[in-house]
Amino acid sequence: MGPKRPGSRSRTQSAPNGPLRVLVIGAGVGGVSIARGLLRDGHDVTVFEQRPDVQAGGGAVTIWPNGATVLGQLGVDMDGAGQELSTVRVVTSTGRPLATLNTSTIMHRLGEPVRMVPRQVLLERLLKGFPAERIRCNAHAVGVVNTGTVARVDFADGHAAEADLVIGADGLHSTVRGVVGARRPEPTGWCSWQGLAALPDGADRHVAFVVIGEHGNLGLWPAGGSDVQWWFDLPWSPDFVRPARPIDVIRSTFTGWSELVDRVLATLTDDDLAHSPYPHFRHPIPGPGHGALTLLGDAAHTMPPTLAQGTNQALLDTMVLCRALSDFQRNAHRDLSGALRWYEKTRRHRVAVVSRVASLQVSHGEAVLGPAAMIPDRFMTWALATFLQSTSHRRMAADINHHMAVATSCRPR
């Protein structure tokens, strides 16, 4: 079944406390997350995906405690998915230790583990129990019309669909973002060559490595089973010309940075780099939207992967947007546009802070990195946990968890 044809009627706002008819553009992690949350809350949700099936690109993602909290609220079982991490070790390209972050301490403070999960595994967990008929594939959105109270999405095949609300979760090059009037993404001057490989024998499955050099940096993060997520960050510009043999470029830059890195490099071929590089972009955080449209995830705030926060920030968007629409349902005197603007305002400051920190240049020479090695590991771990806590709407999350626990305890057994 395809999208509705133009002229099909949607539910109007005559009953503010009733469920909303919602169209979500994009069936990635962010799109499926918000659809799952809104279905849980009783709304009528349809997800549109331009690809022929629901697949997650890229390698693995890091689920920090802020994202894990939202997955728990959505009823997503992450037991056994990916790899829980106990430590993140950061060193220079010459092997000088910079920091050892104790992620077990972060878990005890924030209540959830730090977990590296292949993106496809995360998407499969989100889709477990999700009604398949709610996702329409081969539906390429080419335009959105926002009347203020009703929004219409036009598709490449000539069909259209109308709803009370359209959520753009369609990634970096979002169609909905352009309609909202937000500025285009800005390149940061860096890119990542990345993928999954077999974890070398003898490597600790609970320890992640980040290695920082003067002209690049890299990461090796266990992702569950025999997998390790690897990435190599190098400068990039819009006039980038892909080398004939990119593996030679990677090896010439990073060989000798550590014994473990050399063992991973020895296994990689140009085929492993076929889908790379991934240029880093940063979206200027959009101002208030208007009418029945809003943005979520990378469509709203693409940021460099430095802090591994992209997926977690999309999940926090889900939590706050679900709260905004729940409040709208309960309050007959609040219009939908006001609820959406509250969501955008609530997220704007925190996600802007995360985006700014993620955009800081990581690669530096030994002279610049030296003072960092003098900071105690305990303080560095405390600082990271405090940063995550301060940007994660912890009070809102605790309130939601409390109400969910009360609701569960009141159900008849």
Notable traits:
7-stranded mixed β-sheet, 18 strands, 24% strand, 13 helices, alpha/beta, single chain, disordered N terminus, 413 residues, 35% helix, 5-stranded parallel β-sheet
Could you give a quick summary of the protein structure above?
This protein is an alpha/beta fold and 413 residues long.
Q: Quickly give the structural class.
A: alpha/beta
Question: Sheet with the most strands?
Answer: 7 strands, mixed
Overall mean pLDDT stands at 88
Overall form: globular
Q: Approximately what portion of the residues adopt beta-strand conformation? A: 15-25%
- Total strand count, please? 18
Strand order of the largest sheet: 6-5-14-15-16-13-17
Kindly report how far apart the N and C termini lie: 38 Å
Q: What's the helical proportion of residues?
A: 25-40%
* Spans of at least 5 consecutive residues with low confidence: 1-15
Please describe what this structure looks like.
The chain is an alpha/beta fold and 413 residues long. It has a 7-stranded mixed beta sheet. A 5-stranded parallel beta sheet has the order 8-2-1-12-18. The chain has 13 helices and 18 strands. Strand 9 and strand 10 (151-155) form a beta hairpin. Helices cover 35% and strands 24% of the residues.
